Amino acid sequence: MSGILLGVTELPASPESVIAARAFVRTRLGADHPTMEDVVVLTSEVFTNSVIHSDSRHGGSVMVALAACWTLIHVDVVDAGGESFPHLRGDALSEGGRGLLLVDLLADRWDAYEDDAGRTVWFEVKCDGGGIGSGVGEETSERRIRRQLRITRWAAI
User: Fold this and answer.
1) Measured between alpha carbons, how far is 6 from 111 in angstroms, rounded to an integer?
2) What's the confidence (pLDDT) of residue 135?
3) What CATH number is attached to the domain comprising 48?
């Protein structure tokens, strides 16, 4: 996949760094980007999972990489891995464990893998009405409907 790297940041694996990860995405995408809200929420969820569940929580760090790839935004969140592998939980009413359910509903694609760098959870959110490096514009009605259907489906679980 080719595109434009919008930025990379490495932050301490602490709850306070979630705010910095969200700010990084907001700054790099810009307030007018049609995917900004979804990408910020998804980054926050995946980064939080890294802070809570990965071995990075023992004084390590979590890296966030953001790229514009033609008609989508791609985000990698890389941590030190851990004993359990990221997976969807079936109970939407539980107190915790809904982060990846939200990722599954809002992202157009997502997955996770491990390699020598650690564990990477990645996701993609399609852009409407723009190509690579684009992003200024209103959310299209198609994306708005798709988002509402996903939220409705999530609420019904």
Assistant:
1) 20
2) 43
3) 3.30.565.10
Cα four-point dihedral sign 131, 149, 105, 42: positive
Write the burial class of residue 113 (CB in 10 Å: 0-12 exposed, 13-18 middle, 19+ buried). Answer: exposed
86 is in which domain, residue-wise? 4-156
For residue 23, the Cα-to-chain-centroid distance in whole angstroms is 13
Q: How far apart are CA 12 and CA 56, in angstroms?
A: 8
The number of distinct structural domains making up the chain is: 1
**What backbone phi and psi angles, to 5 degrees, belong to 131?**
-100, -155
Task: Give the mean pLDDT of the chain.
Answer: 83
Residues with Cβ within 8 Å of residue 63, at least 6 apart in sequence: 8, 9, 10, 11, 76, 77, 78, 79
**CB atoms closer than 10 angstroms to residue 44:** 17
Separation between Cα atoms, residue 54 and residue 73, nearest integer Å: 24
- Tens of pLDDT, residues 97-149: 567 888 988 999 999 999 988 999 999 999 875 444 444 444 555 555 655 66
Neighbouring C-beta atoms of residue 7, cutoff 10 Å: 13
